[in-house]
C-alpha cells in the first residue's frame, strides 16, 4: 500500500493547481489559483512557512516545472498568458531571467525538453499555438508552432528520445486530437495525428523510457477515458484503454523509469497501473486523499504523484 512520506502546509488561498520537486528532492514547488507560487524546503518538514513566495503572475498559475540541475531554472505559466523562467542567485533568491508574453490567451502547460538537447522549454496556449523557447549564449530565442490545435492546446510532453536526431513533442487539445511534432527549433512538422477521441484532451504524458514499445504515451480526456499509446516506429500507434468502466479520471503521469502509470481520479484517489503485456495494464494500488481535511481547508489538490519526479 502507498503511504504518506511527509506532508506540508501551504498558505495558498485557492486551489493548488500544480506541484513539482527539484532534481535533488530538496524543494517542493506549488502553484495555485491565487496567483502565488510557493517553494517549500523539504529538508525542514516541521517548518510550515514557505521558503519563498513568488507573485509575478496575475491570476491562476497553471503549471510549475523545475529544469534539470545543469541549468537550474524554475518555469511557470498562467492565465495571464505568460511564461516565466527564474533562477537563484547567491542569496538563494529566485529572480526572473526570462519572460514571454507573446501568447494571446492563457498559457496552459509547460515542459522542459531532454537536458541533452540544451535548455529548451515548450509552452502551450488556449490561442492554439505552442511556443518553443531555447537558451543559446545567454540569450533566449522563441519559435512557434502555429495552429497546433483548433480552439486551444491544453497539454504537452517531450519525449526523452530523439528520432533521427530530431526532438519529439506530443500535444493534446480542444479539437479532441493528439499530435506528435518532430523537428528542431524553428522547424516543426506533424509526425502523427490521432483520430478524434470524442472529447477534449486534458492531460498527456510521454514515458521517459521505452517499455514493451519503443515509444509510450498516456492521454486523459475530459470524458474520463485514459488511453496508453504504443509504437515502435512513431508512425503506427496501438491504443489500450485503461479502466474503461471508470470515467472519473483527471491526470496521467509515468514514473521516472516508465514502469508505472499514475492516474489521478475525481474521487481524490490515485491509481497505479503496471503494464503486463502490450495490450494489458493491471491496477496495482490506490492512495486515497483525506477528503474531509481538504474540504475543511478548502484546498483541493488535483495532481498526479509522478509529475514531480524528474
From TrEMBL:
<keyword id="KW-0458">Lysosome</keyword>
<dbReference type="GO" id="GO:0005764">
    <property type="term" value="C:lysosome"/>
</dbReference>
<dbReference type="GO" id="GO:0090114">
    <property type="term" value="P:COPII-coated vesicle budding"/>
</dbReference>
<keyword id="KW-0509">mRNA transport</keyword>
<comment type="similarity">
    <text>Belongs to the WD repeat SEC13 family.</text>
</comment>
<dbReference type="InterPro" id="IPR001680">
    <property type="entry name" value="WD40_rpt"/>
</dbReference>
<dbReference type="GO" id="GO:0051028">
    <property type="term" value="P:mRNA transport"/>
</dbReference>
<dbReference type="GO" id="GO:0031080">
    <property type="term" value="C:nuclear pore outer ring"/>
</dbReference>
<keyword id="KW-0813">Transport</keyword>
<dbReference type="InterPro" id="IPR015943">
    <property type="entry name" value="WD40/YVTN_repeat-like_dom_sf"/>
</dbReference>
<keyword id="KW-0853">WD repeat</keyword>
<dbReference type="GO" id="GO:0005198">
    <property type="term" value="F:structural molecule activity"/>
</dbReference>
<keyword id="KW-0653">Protein transport</keyword>
<keyword id="KW-0677">Repeat</keyword>
<keyword id="KW-0906">Nuclear pore complex</keyword>
<keyword id="KW-0539">Nucleus</keyword>
<feature type="repeat" description="WD">
    <location>
        <begin position="146"/>
        <end position="182"/>
    </location>
</feature>
<dbReference type="InterPro" id="IPR036322">
    <property type="entry name" value="WD40_repeat_dom_sf"/>
</dbReference>
<dbReference type="GO" id="GO:0030127">
    <property type="term" value="C:COPII vesicle coat"/>
</dbReference>
<keyword id="KW-0811">Translocation</keyword>
<dbReference type="InterPro" id="IPR037363">
    <property type="entry name" value="Sec13/Seh1_fam"/>
</dbReference>
<protein>
    <recommendedName>
        <fullName>Protein SEC13 homolog</fullName>
    </recommendedName>
</protein>
<dbReference type="GO" id="GO:0006606">
    <property type="term" value="P:protein import into nucleus"/>
</dbReference>
<dbReference type="Pfam" id="PF00400">
    <property type="entry name" value="WD40"/>
</dbReference>
Amino acid at each position: 500500500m502507498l503511504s504518506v512520506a511527509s506532508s506540508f502546509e501551504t498558505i495558498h488561498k485557492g486551489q493548488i493547481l500544480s506541484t513539482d520537486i527539484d532534481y535533488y528532492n530538496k524543494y517542493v514547488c506549488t502553484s495555485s489559483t491565487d496567483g502565488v507560487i510557493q517553494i517549500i524546503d523539504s529538508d525542514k518538514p516541521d517548518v510550515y512557512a514557505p521558503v519563498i513566495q513568488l507573485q509575478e503572475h496575475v491570476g491562476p498559475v497553471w503549471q510549475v516545472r523545475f529544469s534539470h540541475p545543469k541549468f537550474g531554472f524554475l518555469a511557470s505559466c498562467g492565465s495571464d498568458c505568460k511564461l516565466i523562467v527564474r533562477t537563484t542567485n547567491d542569496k538563494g533568491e529566485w529572480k526572473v531571467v526570462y519572460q514571454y508574453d507573446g501568447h494571446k490567451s492563457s498559457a496552459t502547460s509547460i515542459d522542459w525538453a531532454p537536458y541533452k538537447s540544451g535548455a529548451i522549454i515548450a509552452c502551450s496556449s488556449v490561442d492554439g499555438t505552442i511556443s518553443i523557447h531555447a537558451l543559446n549564449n545567454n540569450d533566449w530565442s522563441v519559435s512557434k508552432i502555429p495552429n497546433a490545435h483548433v480552439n486551444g492546446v491544453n497539454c504537452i510532453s517531450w519525449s526523452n528520445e530523439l528520432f533521427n536526431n530530431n526532438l519529439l513533442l506530443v500535444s493534446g487539445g480542444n479539437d479532441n486530437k493528439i499530435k506528435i511534432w518532430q523537428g528542431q527549433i524553428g522547424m516543426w512538422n506533424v509526425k502523427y495525428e490521432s483520430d478524434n477521441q470524442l472529447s477534449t484532451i486534458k492531460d498527456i504524458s510521454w514515458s521517459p523510457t521505452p517499455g514493451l514499445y519503443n515509444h509510450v504515451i498516456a492521454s486523459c480526456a475530459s470524458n474520463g477515458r485514459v488511453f496508453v499509446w504504443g509504437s515502435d516506429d512513431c508512425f503506427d500507434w496501438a491504443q489500450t484503454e485503461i479502466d474503461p468502466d471508470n470515467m472519473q479520471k483527471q491526470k496521467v503521469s509515468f514514473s521516472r523509469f516508465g514502469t508505472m502509470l499514475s492516474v489521478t481520479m475525481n474521487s481524490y484517489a490515485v491509481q497505479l497501473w503496471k503494464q503486463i503485456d502490450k495490450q494489458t495494464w493491471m491496477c496495482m494500488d490506490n492512495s486515497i486523499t483525506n477528503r474531509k481535511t481538504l474540504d475543511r481547508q478548502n484546498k483541493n489538490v488535483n495532481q498526479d504523484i509522478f509529475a514531480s519526479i524528474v
